[in-house]
Specification:
Elements (H helix, E strand, L loop, with lengths): L3 H28 L3 E2 L11 E2 L2 H16 L12 H26 L7 H17 L10 H22 L5 H19 L3 H21 L8 H18 L6 H11 L1 H17 L11 H7 L4 H48 L5
Antiparallel strand pairs: 1-2
Helix pairs in contact: 1-2, 1-7, 2-7, 2-8, 3-4, 3-8, 4-5, 5-8, 5-10, 6-7, 6-8, 6-12, 7-8, 9-12, 10-12, 11-12
C-alpha cells in the first residue's frame, strides 16, 4: 500500500497522544468539577469525569499536522486546495468543541438543544463554503440541504450513540478504519489520513472508556467525532457514480444511523420528545434481552464491523456488490429494528 509507513506513523501518534492525554483530561475534569452525575436515565452509578473528548481532539489534530510534514508532504499529494480543506475542517470543529465543552461543564442544566444544533449548522456552513459538500443529485439546490442534513444527522447520531461505556468511541474507531481501508485502496491520501488519525485517537481513549469506564468523552468529543465521520464520508470515493459513494458512506455508518432511527421513531410513537435522554437505545435493549453491558457493546462492535466490511465490498465492486453484500445487511438491519422495537424499555 502506498504511504503505508506514513499512515502507520499518523495512527501511532494519534494513539499515543490520546493514551497520554486522556488521564490528563480526566484530572482536569476532576479539578474543575466537570463530572457526569448518575441519574435514572443513565447506566453509570458514580460521578464520572468528562472532557475525555479533549484528548481525542488533541490526538487527532496532532496526527493530522504530522501527516502534512512527513512522507505525505510530496508536492503532488498535499496541494494548496487540500490545505484549505484541512483548515476549513479545523475551523468547523471549533464551534462544536466549544459548545460541547460548555454543555459538559454545565451538565446539570446543559445547553438547550437549539444551541448545539446552531453550532452544527455553523460547522456545516464552514466546510460547505470551502467546497466540502455532497454531490448526489448534481444540483446545488438539492445537494446543499442534503449536506447540512448529513452533517447534522451524523453528528447527532454519534452523540446519541454515546450511551454505554466504550460504545461511541469503539464504533467511531471501527467506522474510521472502514473509511481508511476504502480511501487507501482508492488512493485518497487526505481521506485516509483523517480516518486513520481518528481511529488512533479513539482507540487511545477507549483504553480508559471501555467498561468499566473511568472517563467519558462528553459532548466535547462526540460532536467533534460525529462531524469528522460525516466530513470524511462526504469526501469518500467509491467505484461508480457520486451517489454510490454516498450509499457506501451510509453503509459504513449504518450502526449510528440505525440506533438514531430506532430511538427517534420509538419516541415519536410514544409521544416523547426526541431530544430527551433515555434508556431506549439499541444497547439498552440488548441489555434488557439479557446481555451484560460489555457483551452488548461487543455485539454492536461486531455489527459495525460487518457493515464496514460490506461497505468495503460495495466500494470496490459497485452496484453488483451492493446487491450481493449490502442488501442482506440492510434486510437484517430492518429485521433487527422491528424485533428490538418490541423490547420493553
Amino acid at each position: 500500500m502506498p504511504y503505508a509507513s506514513a499512515y502507520l506513523a499518523v495512527f501511532a501518534l494519534a494513539l499515543a497522544a490520546s493514551l497520554v492525554g486522556t488521564p490528563v483530561a480526566r484530572r482536569l475534569a476532576h479539578r474543575f468539577g466537570v463530572l457526569d452525575q448518575p441519574s435514572n436515565r443513565k447506566v453509570h452509578r458514580a460521578p464520572t469525569p468528562l472532557l475525555g473528548g479533549l484528548a481525542v481532539y488533541a490526538g487527532f489534530w496532532g496526527a493530522v499536522l504530522l501527516a502534512t510534514r512527513i512522507e505525505f508532504a510530496a508536492p503532488d499529494v498535499f496541494l494548496p486546495a487540500t490545505t484549505i480543506e484541512i483548515a476549513a475542517i479545523f475551523l468547523a470543529t471549533l464551534p462544536l468543541v466549544i459548545v460541547g465543552f460548555l454543555d459538559d461543564k454545565y451538565k446539570t442544566h446543559g445547553l438547550p438543544p437549539r444551541a448545539k444544533l446552531a453550532a452544527q449548522f455553523v460547522s456545516a456552513g464552514i466546510v460547505s463554503v470551502a467546497g466540502l459538500d455532497l454531490h448526489v443529485f448534481d444540483s446545488i439546490w438539492l445537494d446543499l440541504p442534503l449536506t447540512c442534513l448529513w452533517i447534522v444527522g451524523i453528528t447527532n447520531a454519534i452523540n446519541l450513540l454515546d450511551n454505554m461505556d466504550g460504545l461511541s468511541a469503539g464504533a467511531t474507531a471501527i467506522a474510521a478504519v472502514s473509511f481508511f481501508a476504502i480511501a487507501a485502496l482508492n488512493g485518497q491520501i487526505l481521506v485516509g489520513s483523517l480516518a486513520i488519525a481518528l481511529a488512533g485517537a479513539c482507540l487511545g481513549f477507549l483504553r480508559y472508556n471501555f467498561n468499566p469506564a473511568t472517563v467519558f468523552m462528553g459532548d466535547t468529543g462526540t460532536l467533534f467525532m460525529g462531524f469528522l465521520l460525516a466530513t470524511i464520508g462526504m469526501k469518500l470515493k467509491a467505484t461508480g457514480p457520486a451517489w454510490w459513494s454516498f450509499i457506501v458512506a451510509v453503509a459504513v455508518l449504518a450502526l449510528p444511523i440505525f440506533d438514531t432511527s430506532l430511538v427517534t421513531l420509538y419516541r415519536l410513537w410514544k409521544g416523547q420528545a426526541v431530544s430527551q435522554g433515555g434508556k431506549d437505545h439499541t444497547s439498552h435493549r440488548l441489555v434488557k434481552l439479557g446481555l451484560p453491558q460489555r457483551e452488548a457493546v461487543l455485539v454492536l462492535y461486531g455489527a459495525s464491523a460487518v457493515a464496514g466490511t460490506a461497505a468495503l465490498a460495495m466500494a470496490r465492486g459497485g452496484l453488483d456488490a451492493g446487491i450481493l453484500y449490502g442488501l442482506p445487511v440492510a434486510v437484517g438491519a430492518l429485521g433487527a429494528g422491528l424485533y428490538l422495537a418490541r423490547v420493553d424499555v
